[in-house]
Amino acid sequence: MSQPSHLPYGGIATFARALAVQPDGDWRAFAAVLGIPYDIALGFRPGARFAPRALREASLRYTPPFSGLDGRVRLDPAQSPDPLIVDAGDVILPSLEPELARGRITQAARQVKARCRVPVFLGGDHSVTYPLLRAFHDIPELHVIQLDAHLDFTDTRNDTRYSNSSPFRRACEDLPNLVHITTFGLRGLRFDAEAVAAARARGHTLVPMEQVESQFQTLLESMPAHRPVYLSIDVDAFDPAVLPGTSSPEPDGLTYALTMRLIREVVRRHQVVALDVVELAPNLDPTGRSELLAARLIMETLAEVFGTGAHHAGA
Amino acid sequence: MSQPSHLPYGGIATFARALAVQPDGDWRAFAAVLGIPYDIALGFRPGARFAPRALREASLRYTPPFSGLDGRVRLDPAQSPDPLIVDAGDVILPSLEPELARGRITQAARQVKARCRVPVFLGGDHSVTYPLLRAFHDIPELHVIQLDAHLDFTDTRNDTRYSNSSPFRRACEDLPNLVHITTFGLRGLRFDAEAVAAARARGHTLVPMEQVESQFQTLLESMPAHRPVYLSIDVDAFDPAVLPGTSSPEPDGLTYALTMRLIREVVRRHQVVALDVVELAPNLDPTGRSELLAARLIMETLAEVFGTGAHHAGA
Amino acid sequence: MSQPSHLPYGGIATFARALAVQPDGDWRAFAAVLGIPYDIALGFRPGARFAPRALREASLRYTPPFSGLDGRVRLDPAQSPDPLIVDAGDVILPSLEPELARGRITQAARQVKARCRVPVFLGGDHSVTYPLLRAFHDIPELHVIQLDAHLDFTDTRNDTRYSNSSPFRRACEDLPNLVHITTFGLRGLRFDAEAVAAARARGHTLVPMEQVESQFQTLLESMPAHRPVYLSIDVDAFDPAVLPGTSSPEPDGLTYALTMRLIREVVRRHQVVALDVVELAPNLDPTGRSELLAARLIMETLAEVFGTGAHHAGA
Amino acid sequence: MSQPSHLPYGGIATFARALAVQPDGDWRAFAAVLGIPYDIALGFRPGARFAPRALREASLRYTPPFSGLDGRVRLDPAQSPDPLIVDAGDVILPSLEPELARGRITQAARQVKARCRVPVFLGGDHSVTYPLLRAFHDIPELHVIQLDAHLDFTDTRNDTRYSNSSPFRRACEDLPNLVHITTFGLRGLRFDAEAVAAARARGHTLVPMEQVESQFQTLLESMPAHRPVYLSIDVDAFDPAVLPGTSSPEPDGLTYALTMRLIREVVRRHQVVALDVVELAPNLDPTGRSELLAARLIMETLAEVFGTGAHHAGA
Amino acid sequence: MSQPSHLPYGGIATFARALAVQPDGDWRAFAAVLGIPYDIALGFRPGARFAPRALREASLRYTPPFSGLDGRVRLDPAQSPDPLIVDAGDVILPSLEPELARGRITQAARQVKARCRVPVFLGGDHSVTYPLLRAFHDIPELHVIQLDAHLDFTDTRNDTRYSNSSPFRRACEDLPNLVHITTFGLRGLRFDAEAVAAARARGHTLVPMEQVESQFQTLLESMPAHRPVYLSIDVDAFDPAVLPGTSSPEPDGLTYALTMRLIREVVRRHQVVALDVVELAPNLDPTGRSELLAARLIMETLAEVFGTGAHHAGA
Amino acid sequence: MSQPSHLPYGGIATFARALAVQPDGDWRAFAAVLGIPYDIALGFRPGARFAPRALREASLRYTPPFSGLDGRVRLDPAQSPDPLIVDAGDVILPSLEPELARGRITQAARQVKARCRVPVFLGGDHSVTYPLLRAFHDIPELHVIQLDAHLDFTDTRNDTRYSNSSPFRRACEDLPNLVHITTFGLRGLRFDAEAVAAARARGHTLVPMEQVESQFQTLLESMPAHRPVYLSIDVDAFDPAVLPGTSSPEPDGLTYALTMRLIREVVRRHQVVALDVVELAPNLDPTGRSELLAARLIMETLAEVFGTGAHHAGA
């Protein structure tokens, strides 16, 4: 008989029951989780500060080893020389002082990035992607693939340049190596015309929601193969019926299945250098399914990257 | 830099930050919002009385000017000689005394109708559509397009003739000019056979949910062009996954996208003389997405009617 | 005018306002409801103990007689010589003492089964299906059709052989007459490879979610016609957007419409000897739509079996 | 060992597991429960329509026989020749048509009153006390003892004379035998000066919250002994911390202990001819403690009246 | 009969149905409400950004004119030459950029202060009291009376000097006229020893919760009479049973009654120059009683200040 | 400036940010926390399985070092040679198999007890106190002080001898060294007369709620001084207004202040050998104040025991 193990609600909640480490500690791992419980840059309903802890708890339903029906999705720590996943805890953040916060986020991200193959960043609102991307300034020809209902390329919103509407604008200004952004899932009434024009002027690819399914394969193929990709998943890309726990939901979004097909294609063709999952507000979904879905998305993405996912099995 | 403006949770909540007016005041506008916080005529879970205020708050995420990605949906007050929208507040209603309530609803609706091109009525349960329609007794050959899971054409339910199951029956009895009703989205176990027969005897068009997508275009084309249409949207027409905050949800309903395609077609072919949105019960949806979706529906419909919506752009 | 009758929130809540009886009383009926408020065998979020009462309350929106639009789904007590439905109450269960609980469940199920054509069992977690199936040990060549995201065929989980992961494993060990299980809707990351292999070794049919729609008809036709079928519906087979109130939701599940198409086909080709609905946790869905959907599913299935459902009308 | 019995969440929920009867059936009992799921006469937050069912469910934690520590509060069906309690179900009510509703309430109350010693009426909003009191028109020199934050003696509110602000005004107009009302627990900012004056002109006793504890004994002694008393308990008399589930909470209200001391004194000195519990809105208290407290209040009051309560034991 | 008027859930929600004005408009009033929907300076559970709107809605249950039982608390607009209350809306705030936010708060507070006798500031978290107090730099010998579980006099917390732990420290540094602070209701485990010492070194009066009742009268009398008092009410001063909707509740706090006795004594002896109510998080209390209590507190305080409250009536 | 540190919602949640250890690891500490996420032995509303994790999260608002106002309650890790607190995680429990679960609980409790001075056990329902007490079989003349609304001394309930109604009955049968139990806070309608008699026959002290305040000092003094005391706190001892998150609330319970006065007296006169906190159901209290209060209770009790609490300071 196997060893006794905890049910999902039992035990101290590190991500997927991984070893807890310090970002700057003495460790190596395939993947490392880092939380950024920061949500003061959003402009509507707060709560993303609670996401890292909620994701840790939800992840306990998906602790490896696991394998899907017919073994199409598998993740088995025994196959990894280094630890498969470690949990680097959360960045220590001030409640105010945004610039200090951004500095700490960048620093911790750099430390984690130096010690693992795939850092997994748990936001926080989408503003954190800017300081996170700064940790990847040394990767030549970095691509960003963004899943999002909104463009987040606005220059200034409500008198601030660092809100969750602007992370990619700031990143493009700072990081010459950030050559291209593809955004999947755009929809809704409100678009900043200047931002749309600026993104297009830089050559970014903007994919409205209704074209995602028909075009994602072609679009990913149009990128030169095997590029380093930072994958930024704003959970409001999902349909709010599927994931209601987010600050600014927009109807008619992604299903989980389509999202995973897209991610599998990204993994198959390119090299995912990091993953962030942002804008999850667990306090806005009393059914708890929002964090469960986001946690599963992370685990399934890791399985794909680790090499035992569906696309390796000929699916 | 643009003027400072409120985030959606800031400021006194008039609809879309419109000017607050009295229904019988000295104003003109393209559209005017009138709330009817009345829900004692429904037979299950109350809460629609809270809808007008919830819709005002949710509308603040969609204040014009706005434009969708690629400008397909646009609404810009600067292009309107009159104010684009005013908020005429709510009808003052007694908590009992249904007949008195109906009288006040009709009176306020008449006042608002006389001052704008498109009145937008915020229910309230669906019983309010009967006194609202009475304000349109003077429009020759009025058509109603109803989005609804239920027919609402029952003669008597639980000993009352004025419940939210009967508004269209009463309206057809009172209003000789109401020539035709098309109902989209019908589904569920419970239909009043007498009501179905009576509606068909009058020549109404009953479209079950599973036929909406395949047939709405044909059906709208089968109407003579450019008819005056009163558009009545019972939010239980939506799939409960998309909009759970309603008294009597029925599975397998409309998506937001299909609904807007249908509404765009109505606007393209006919003349929308008024819009009501009823049966929203914000207290039944702690995620808040129900009122956000209904508020966006109103704004996007106004954009279509105002002439800058997707169907004008060749979409 | 018809007799006064209760609105759904009025009156003592027996299932569909049926007569309350004892499981071993002196009665006969077409269908009989038996609740099993037992949820200590699940491994995540409790609450299924509240499901029988929640289903009784929700059922009051669907009390017969009813008929769908165009009479496609009908249930009319007047057409039944015996009572159409009785409510046999709940099995009296200890809060601990699992073996005693299983014994009582089997005994009450036998009593109910002896007195009606279609027992309807309201779980409880899925572990109750094992003692329920024991009441059907006397039916030659019994088939089970299971709607479920999970296989529930695990030998041992967290040190117990009787959890909600194992009911069908135990049943197959005990019941030689249980010849075959078809499971529709399987999905998710975690499958017990031993359980999958064991189920296949017995010849069971495992249908992943993404193949349900394309294959259910063929699969049901591949069974010899008119077999006795025990229909076990774990509500986590549904998409969590459609039914969020369940312990262990998995994204990308069944819609209500597809589920009813599948059930209609089962009824059309085979003989449903019993129905259970398990894993509903009403406390996890504050919108209330989960129990409403599950109650409607039961009523619509009964209408199909009783002979006035859609498949009899040539739909 | 005792007979197996249900845990509180098990079984069909009649009040305290009492026999279900019709109001006009062939039965006799010490106490009979009658629900009035009616809440369209209130002016703020609805939900009292759900109270009768919630009270039935909560009552299952307090099913007799029971006895408190040291036997001070006891209720034992074995000591009653007739059934101790029966559950007469709910009055069948239209969702609109207030006058018809009032007629049905009075009729059912008369039927129940004729068959038991202590009817227990489960509101509904406080407007139902007017038609309930009409069933007691034949009791000479009827006294009402009202526990309430509000006076409910207003002539007209928001254009209606039958709202939950007016039941006692209407009753005093109609019932010459209603000689006196004592109201305990009054507090808050809003009092209708005309109503206060009218109540005092009739000689009613108005006891502000802050005087309840010091004066209830004296006040009850000042009434002639052994008077017939109709006890009307608006649950907003309680402190909202103790019972938050009510439409219009007012801070600084009654504790449960003080309420029971007051009720014990009423029972000791007078003859309780009926009890109503109104304005409970279970949907406004997700902790569930509101209905549990109200159900216990009913059971403990019945124990006092039945003769085994604390005041009979010399407490 | 009186004019028809709205039930509390009806109509556009300005505070107490007051006229909406601009902070810098052309108006005069006795009291003016100004909202500050700002909560990014707190260190635990967000939501105070929703408080101004929630307080407006809750205030509609307490619209003047009103008078308590026996006229002890009265507020009657007819007795005021100027408008009694106006609603100056909310300060327009950026979601980040704390310094800019503080500047705007001070500016709007100055504008409002110049136009009314008693500004009422609706927070927001407690950090807003610092920029609010800056608007009172011109009042000689300003006293602050603070109701609060926490001292909020910390120099630096989590790397910021402007959090909701520091408003009074910053104010004392900036405002030479702020001569003294009395804090009522202190309790809990966590006190910053340096802050306690600093407050005492300045001569501030620190009153632990358990001494409030016995000492408030003496303490207020020990102040020289008729001083200008800024009254700052952190709602976590209340017992969490009474007001659960706040970020950082501490057990064993103030009742509403004791709070009003204290406030009445302040009003009787001194001159209230402004009132703020902060740290209300309506999203944390689904029963809605938190905002109802806080709204009533404001109205009752205004009644006392306006001169018709209980202390003027000899209570 | 002090080191950066997490806000309460940041970082991996061990209890009070203590070091995570294994129950049988190589460590020594003053206090050690052990969770028992087990709630299948209760008979009403589940959720106590979620308590250990909720208590860990809530404890982060009370991480030492801290000191109350005036230093009356202090806890400073720097004053402890061993670690002040470690977090030994949760016992690994099966979802069924009660006997196996009890064995594992006893074993882990023994391991923890051997390594620290004060084990702190986080339930789970109250049934876990029986296996916990078995770990203290070696302490001569063990006393239990129980805070509880219920006696929990029932022989058999609903056919089981191991439910949360029986832990102390089982413990007294098994542990000859358990010489006496004092239960504070008893109240409610339902007492098992046989259990009351049996407890009294053993000489236990039963203190009804209404006598706690007047008698706790006398009662604790009546015990011989300096006895080993196991302190078992069922959170339903608290008033439900103060702590609503529990399965079976009973009105009129303990305040936090009275509870701490009682605990301080216990600590002052006796030797606390362990502490358990049981029956917390965080899922039943959406305001979150229940777990915050229970976490603070634990921290404040530890401060008292550690020697820097209020009673050491002459309070």
Automatic annotation (TrEMBL), chains A, B, C, D, E, F:
Pfam families: Arginase (PF00491). The keyword Hydrolase applies. Signal peptide: none annotated. PROSITE patterns: ARGINASE_1, ARGINASE_2. InterPro entries: Ureohydrolase, Ureohydrolase_dom_sf, Ureohydrolase_Mn_BS. The keyword Metal-binding applies. Keywords: Hydrolase, Metal-binding. Transmembrane segments: none annotated. Belongs to the arginase family. Agmatinase subfamily. This is Arginase family protein.
